[in-house]
Design brief:
Among the domains are: 149 residues, Dimethylsulfoxide Reductase, domain 2 (3-Layer(aba) Sandwich); 143 residues, Barwin-like endoglucanases (Beta Barrel), CATH 2.40.40.20; 308 residues, Alpha-Beta Plaits, CATH 3.30.70.20. Helix content is 29%, strand content 21%. It contains 35 helices and 41 strands. A hairpin with a 2-residue loop joins strand 24 and strand 25.
Amino acid sequence: MASNKKYWKSVEELNENSSIVETLRNNEFVEEIPTDEFLGDKDALSTSSTTRRDFLKYVGFSTAAASLAACEGPVIKSIPYVVQPEEIIPGVADFYATTIADGFDFANILIKTREGRPIKVENNNLPNAKTGANARVHASVLSLYDSLRLKQSKIEGKDASWADVDAKVTAALADAKAKGGQVVLLTGTMASPSTDKLIADFIAKNPTAKHVVYDAVSSSDALDAFQMVYGERALADYDFSKADVIVSVGADILGDWQGGGYDAGYAQGRIPKNGKMSKHIQIESNMSLAGANADKRIPMTVTEQKHALVKIYNVITGASVSTPKVANEEAVMKAAQQLKAAAGKGVLVSGLDDVNAQLLVLAINRALNAEAFNPATPRLIRKGDAKAVAQLVKDMKAGVVHTLIMNGVNPVYTLPNSADFVEGLSKVKMSVAFSLKEDETALKTKVAVATPHYLESWGDVSIVKGHYSITQPTIRPLFDTKQFQEALLAWTGNPASYYDFLKAHGTAVVAGGATWNKLVHDGFYVTPVTAAVGGANVDFASAAGALAQAKNLGGLELVLYTKTGMGDGQQANNPWLQEFPDPITRVSWDNYVTVSKKDAEKLGLVNYNVANGGLNGSYSTIEVGGVKLENVPVIIQPGQAVGTIGLALGYGRKEAMKQEMQVGVNAYTLYANMKSDQSAKVSKANGDHEFACVQLQKTLMGRGDIIKETTLEIFNTKDAAEWNIVPMVSLDHKETPTTKVDIWDSFDRSVGHHFNLSIDLNACTGCGACVIACHAENNVPVVGKSEVRRSRDMHWLRIDRYYSSQDTFKGDVELKEGASGLMNSIDTFTGMEDPSENPQVAFQPVMCQHCNHAPCETVCPVAATSHGRQGQNHMAYNRCVGTRYCANNCPYKVRRFNWFLYNKNSEFDYHMNDDLGRMVLNPDVNVRSRGVMEKCSLCIQMTQSTILKAKREGRLVGKDEFQVACSAACSSGAMVFGDVNDKESQVAKLAEDDRMYHLLEHIGTKPNVFYHVKVRNT
């Protein structure tokens, strides 16, 4: 039965003749929406914060409004290509070969781009490539998107066009030529043959001009020594894969020494094969990556290192130069004898800033006829001339320099006598700085030219003699920038573009060997080189005599060095590098003075941990030659030579830096005469410093099943069951190997792909390139110092560093096994937390172990984490409700919780908080939100891409075609990823190796990540 009731909302509706009711009934929006006014005004629309819902409300109700939006509205979001470039397929990555050459790091690399955006650095693995990207090289892609880059050239601090700059500089050059004023080109090491030709042309056009090469971190003494012996200003190159005995005196051969990149060759000799492996002896002051990986580490002051080098010279050459006695003399003499016995299979290197020391290095390697020593193909990088730079500063202060043109240098920040340079700069009539950023130097010059990032540039590089590389742009310039080379062409009256000039030069270099297109495709070309001829009149005996007279100048010896993450400080505004924990100290977001325990006790300096695991330390004041550096935090460093302290360069920057990244102290102020060793006075200052140190976070206590190691002698003479012990458990009251026991029902894993990751502890140097590569590939957020200190870092991959309590890990095992009774055991284990004065060190990368019997999967109440058929432990972010049960149940502590939304959050003002920085994000990987768990996925997007590529090409996946971010970044070969179901794959063979073991094997999680026992050649 129909109802006759009438429902109404307003009394007005009861009036049948109401015009208001009729109007409202036929027109939902009483007032006209001002679409014409809003959408027709470009400025109003571009600055609007209108939401998507409001935008649809505006344009969704009339054809006219929609048409207007289509015609007039500016493009805010990306749109499909009208004419799609042939080389770009949406959703498919493109790779371009290029070369980084920023004056400090040099390497042949590949750049992964997505839809025209560079998002990741890969190693160029073609034969003969000078590859081996370190952490800084991997992070350099983020520096492209630095929001504080100089976006337009400036004159006297005001925006200017290139035409304005060109006119001003041209006038200055003409004035200098007319008046006979000196013109100086001050550049970093570019190692660019085409640029050298342009500079020569420039000097020909400007007869009063000269070129000075300046490197913030100098190798001037090594360059001088090589030039004296071989007649060429270069650095001897080394191939450590050819050495059986390596002796290093103060050279971090696994760090930044001579440009780095030695770890691949080094690791080849460190993996025991056929019962043999190389022996590495390190003599040094600071604990370095090389010292941490050495078989024998001898801590010494710099003065003692010089004397030790003379003693080795005496043994190798038969000389008899008198030297003072040194600490650990017996160990030094034994090293010298082992080196001599190895003959051509031995090699000696040194990082001492002393031309006499570097001369002895060349003499010793020539006497040994060392196969690893390559003087015929020297390195043409790090070619700064400290004497020429010192003279330039004097000339500037004297008013001699008329025009100063700088490229790729920041002397106001990096020069120890920065105040003198600034004073001289005020007397220079025209100063020009080509710079990526408006840094300390660009702010002081009259003209600051915005330059492109290397990923936006053309160029060429000769890293070593006979090796010619190309730098090519992988994205169009983001800003109004000008290359230094383009400017030189303009100022020499050459109408050609730099690309045309470079192409002509490069084509001539590879004539008869390759085409220009192949050169650009491969990224490099190798030409034959004639053998080096040594100089005839070098007096090595006098050099040894002078070095033997070296004396400690009193006080503590300060040894300045560069950190694996920060380098010379060029990328100090890069949040990936700031949050990267130092491999040795495990501290991020800081530099600090490292002090031995004995010296710290004398000076009253302390470190202590607070209740949440955070590390605190004293402040100190360091004085070198009347220059004081105040409020320097202190780290008490095991292995630091007594009588020495260490301090990293590259920190303390303020200009063109986000507030959060203005951290640390500027150690360049103590870099007097560009010598890395200085005599210093240290005193305790007031207050305590809070460090962001991850060493006490997520630790795996008890080393028996974590770091397994043995000696080469035991490895060669005893059965694997004795040095790679399999844990035993009780099964039916019988002792049974844990590998034979399973409390879970297993499924058939032999069908399809099954992924494993192998990590060789002998080859892993702890360099951390894998950590940054993981950041780039998987959109890992940066959380900042405060959150890292709270144990909230988001690294999917960490590199645990272990110290021995005794002088060796073997001594630790004996001490632990000797403990008996409750109180004795407590005292023993408490004491073992205190490292030795000169400990052995072990590095171990740890990520999600992708357990086949994963404890995290069983406790998740919403099934957000589950196991895949291919062996990966999956995370469904949309299902996760953040209970963190999985993290509590994970024995490896590899899961991370998003305490905050790190993306588009001003509280975390890093690259994810601005549009430019977010261009680096990988579109294949989710950006996680607050409240969800995340962890290593074994780069499932990369494995699936490989499978789909093979499927599209109608073929099987290649034998070792599978890669993940960490294994692809590992230049030492420590990480190998692949399909264990492919029995021909490298990872399948490694899984059968006697050295293979799993972490915490006794708990039965059956991980898909496995390790190899570390073998020491003691």
